[in-house]
Amino acid sequence: MAAKLLPKPMTQSRYRITQTEIMAKGWSSLQRLTVEANMAHGKNLTVLREVADHGHGAAILPVDSVRGTCLLVRQWRAGAAFTGHEGFLIEACAGLLDADDPEGCVRREAFEELGTQLRNISQVSTCFSSPGAVSEIVSLFIADYAAADRVGSGGGLEEEGEDIEVMELPLQQAFDMIATGEIMDAKTIILLQHVKLRLITNK
Fold first, then answer.
1. Which of 29, 71, 80, 111 could form a disulfide with 25 if both were Cys (CB 3.0 to 4.6 A apart)?
2. pLDDT range class, residue 8, cuts 50, 70, 90
């Protein structure tokens, strides 16, 4: 299934990027944008903004509706650790698209990180992850799985420095972990809330 199309950008914008400058480049790039802004009150300003760019991504939440479980991962995240958090977050399986389309990406990541094959993949949404400072667009999916679909150990790719713990949790426990703050990752909260709403609607 192809990713949903994004809305077209406005052809006439009061904001115009006039220059980009690469400030740093590694796993991602940090770019400074010079923006000419025609403010709503009529004043013209030149503003500078920094944007982190590492490409686009996709995330998947596999759900076993028969057993009432879902598959998540737990891994260390530099951005969380930078804030003073311990750094380990519980998340939906996700990755960068690289050369894949979004659905191909989540199939690949589900096998690498969860050791799981997916059935009935369905797209939930396409959204900006943190548009104030990050260019990433994330495609969000849910899928079915059963115990027999867990054909590998998961854990990620050692050669890419991945150290991922696979977690199979009852759905209700995962829902509760949002309220307790044990799950703080935005894409994961969106996907779990989508599943919760679907369960309520189907009752």
1. 29
2. low
Q: Per-residue pLDDT for 70 more than 60?
A: yes
The answer to whether residues 69 and 36 belong to one domain is no
C-alpha 55/C-alpha 111 separation (Å) is 21
**Nearest partner of 3 among 121, 135, 95, judged by Cα:** 121
In a domain, 30, yes or no: yes
Alpha-carbon distance of 56 to 139, in angstroms, equals: 8
pTM over 0.85: yes
Q: Where are the beta strands (DSSP E) in the chain?
A: 15-25, 29-38, 44-53, 57-64, 69-76, 88-91, 93-96, 119-128, 137-144, 165-170
Residue 166, strand partner residues: 73
Instruction: Please give the residue range of the domain that contains residue 158.
Output: 57-201
Query: What amino acid is encoded at 83 in this protein?
Result: T
Q: Are residues 93 and 38 in the same domain?
A: no
Give ∠ CA 155-137-90 in degrees, rounded to 5.
35
Looking at the structure, do residues 152 and 194 belong to the same domain, yes or no?
yes
- Read off the CATH number of the domain in which 148 is found: 3.90.79.10
Q: Looking at the structure, tell me whether residues 48 and 71 fall in a common domain.
A: no
20 & 75 share domain: no
